[in-house]
Each structure stands twice: as structure tokens, then as C-alpha cells.
Hints:
Elements: H1 4-7, E1 27-42, E2 54-68, E3 74-86, E4 99-109, E5 112-119, E6 136-145, E7 148-158, E8 182-193, E9 196-207, E10 224-225, E11 232-245, E12 248-257, E13 263-264, H2 267-270, E14 273-284, E15 287-296, H3 326-331, E16 345-356, E17 359-370, E18 383-399, E19 402-417, E20 425-435
Antiparallel strand pairs: 1-2, 1-20, 2-3, 3-4, 4-5, 5-6, 6-7, 7-8, 8-9, 9-11, 10-13, 11-12, 12-14, 14-15, 15-16, 16-17, 17-18, 18-19, 19-20
Amino acid sequence: MKKSILLGAAALAAIALAAPQAADAGETKIGGYYQFRTVTMDNTPGDVAGDENANYWAQRLQLNVDMKASEKSHAHLVTRVLNNNTVGGADVTLAGDWTVNQLWLETEAWNVGLKVGNMPIALNDGLLFNHDTTSYGTILLAKNFGGVTVVGANVKVAEGSDNVAPALVPAVTGPNANHQDVDFWVLSALGKYSNVDYQITAAYLNSESRVGGVPYGAANGTGVINNATDSITDGWIALTLGGKVENVDLTGTLIYETGMDNVTNNSQLDSDGFMAALRAKGKTGFGGWNGYVFYGAEDFTAAVPGGDRTFWSPTWDQGGAGAQDLMQRALVAPNGGVASTQSNMWGVGAGLTINAGAWTIKPSLDYASLVEEVVTTAPAAVVYDSAMGGTIGFTTKIQEGTMLDLSGTFVDPNARVGGTSEEVMHYVQASVKMDF
């Protein structure tokens, strides 16, 4: 765990530099990557999307821009010209996405670090907040006190929107509809005691009063607020410790959630809960190893439901153009409720890194299960209570800055309710990625 995850707000590892700016204002650089991937996939859960036995090509072009006025004042931009664009046939005009994933400014005022804009944020080993490749609208202040960095932030979750049908709130739409705002208030401290890195964070969710509808984080319409003026609040306290024991790097996180106020008909949302996780990694003579174990209680609600995207392994989150996250497809999407990669679920997994000449081989094995059965998304839906899977990847450098990646993933889900038990799900991909 590094202080840069807060002072830098967990900036993406791929972030480069640049953007148009007067030459005398500082330096401007541009970077990013292009990725081309072929995908073959078989046996997706229930074939609900009609994509069983899929075979397609996908590509992505990402631009990372850093505009630097001085050592302490700079702005960053991450945009996707093409995101998960499907490669078509002859005489095809590519329709660019040009989606801005991140855009923020960093500076320092009176010895206080200041960050404003839509920025990536990862807190407490990416378990409380995790940006994936998206961002959060945030105002963030950071100050160092004798080796302890204290960070305060106001994080926008939603502005003028609370996931209710427009017909229910005809008079309160748009950016001026304050009672539809959803905000996080975050206070965090990082430091090191003896040989242990630590981060402790308190986060408070305030979803302003609104008219009817589904509260923040509710699924399948099973939760409602008590009346038209109630706001919904929730709180989280997270502690992360990291250090080395006998040449093994350990990172442990414990998060307690207080439960949502003013929610009825949903015991999972209004009850308190916790989640805990431990990651470990070490080196070997041929490369390295890693492992994880986590448990999210039935009544634990993730701070960012549906967007937690916890990276446990490539089986959970493959990443890149046209990726298919099979473990998530098997256990998160079909089950609804508050099942996610953190909530109402436990899992364990391990992986290896094997250096074999010019190639790096990374096999991994994963298992996960729901803690308690949740309401299905539909009576006839194919749902699963556990799944076992794994991924093996082969990467090598084919030119400077250009990597070839070959990998395959399988997941064997265990059917619980309704539908037909799915056979093993397969995902095979080959990609070429050029960083520039």
C-alpha cells in the first residue's frame, strides 16, 4: 500500500502525459494503447444474451493525456476513441466512442494537496472504492502530518438522479434537483507504524430526500423508502494493513457497514454487515505466486453497488477490449439482490507467475460461493450458488512496447434454482497490445 493511492488518487498505471497547451506553460505529452483481440466463447449462462458460441474480434484505442504546468500543477485526461469496438467487414466506417473516462486537475494550495474533477479513486486495497477504468466526480484534499497523510473528499455518486422513473419525479430533474443527489463524504488516513502500512477510512453515504422509487443500491425493486421526504444514509469503516512476513507480502482489509436508514422490505440493505479479505504474494525461483481469500456477509452492502469490480483474478475480471468476466457472469449478474464481488459471497483463489524464457505463464484457480441464497432475477432464470474456474495466460514481447497475450478461462457453475444446469463456460482470447 502506497501513499500515492491517495495523493495520486490511485491514478491508472498506464497513465501517460499530454494535451494541447501553450509551450511556455509547461510540458504536454500524450500516450495510451491500442489493443486488438480475437475472442471465442462457448456456454455463457443460459445464453440470456444470445451470445453462446460467440466468435468475434474487438479493438480499443485509449489516449492518456497529461498537461503539466509545474511540478505541483497538472491535469490528466483518459479518453477512449474506440472502447470495445467490434471489428467489422469491408467498407466499414468506424464510429468512435470518444468517451472521457477520467478528467481531473491536481495542484497544491498552502501546502494542501487539491484534486478536482472526475478522477480514479481506490481506497483500502480497492475494496471500499475501486475505479476500474471509470472515475468519480470528486473534490479531494490531502495533507501530511508528520508521516501520516490525511485525506478528505466529497465524492459524487449521482447528480440529479436516483434511479426512479422520470414520471415519478416530473418536477425535480436536472442538475438543480438537489434532493436527487447521492454523495459520499470520505475521511481517510494513511501511514506506517513499525513495518506495517495502514489505511483507515470512514465513508458516509447521503442520498437526499426524493419522491418514491428504489433506494440507492436496491435491486429488483425490493426496497422502498418510508415516505416522500426521507433521505437514505449508510456508513462504512474500513481498515487495511499491509506488510511482509517471512518474505511474504500480506494485505488484509476489514470493512464494516452500518446498514441503510429509511429502507423497508429489504433486510439485506437495512441490516449491518462486514466483509474481510486477505491477499498474499511472494517470489519463487521461477517467478512468483499469489493468493486471496474473501468473505462478504449476507447483509453487507458494497459502498458502490454494481461498480465495485474487485479484481481478484483474471477469471473475475479479464480487462481489455471485448473481455468476458466469466466468474462475474456466473455468480453476480444472474443472481441479482446484493450479490457482488464483495457482498453475500465468499471466495478463494491462487495463481502462479512462471518465467519461461521469453514467455511469462500465469495459471490461476478460483472458487466462490454465495453466502445465502438471494431472490432470483426472474422465476425461470438460470442462477448459480457457486462456481469453480481458472485462467491460464501466456504473454511475450514481440516488439518494444508491443505484447502478445494468449489466454483461456473456464468456469464451471453449480445450478441452484430453475433453468438447466449450464455446462462449463469457456473463453479463449488472443490479443496484441501496443503501448505508446
